[in-house]
Amino acid sequence: MSEADLRDYAVDERDVEVHRRVVKRVMEEHDVLPVAYGMIFKSKKNLTVAMSAGYTAMKKAWPVVTGKVELGVKVFRPKGVELNGRAEEIRRDIIQRLTAVSVDFKDLKLFSDRLLLNTAFLVERSRIDEFSERVGSAIAEHDLKTSYSGPWPPYNFVDIHILGKNRRGFR
Fold this sequence. Notes:
Blueprint: H1 13-27, H2 44-65, E1 68-76, H3 87-99, E2 104-107, E3 115-124, H4 128-142, E4 145-152, E5 160-161, E6 169-170
Antiparallel strand pairs: 1-3, 1-4, 2-3, 5-6
């Protein structure tokens, strides 16, 4: 927790980069239960109330994140390369290889016709190197392009609602 003025904050690249560096540093020594970017509470009392309201959901979510990180994998078909109807087969092969060394995965939105896979994987910290090797070998074998990111807090695997209309708890 840190003190901050209660106002609308414009989100700019510099602030996001500072946030990313802080989260990265914290993750070096601790597991992270992700929350929405820019959460600000009017007072310590409001923070305490929110934390109390969300305690059960956070406790339920904690085993999901303990010892784990999120790794993002996007796989692209290179420009001018046709897969001759093999896109789904290649996609299944890559997912199968990566789920073998991950705890869970989430398919994310495909935002380009060249994008075969846009996926977040939940991976045990102890298996990051093995996971990375599998990403590299799968991409090389299929001669594709990739964007591989992380480690991140498991944003796509934890969704805690403790304030507002969506007080559903942990999903």
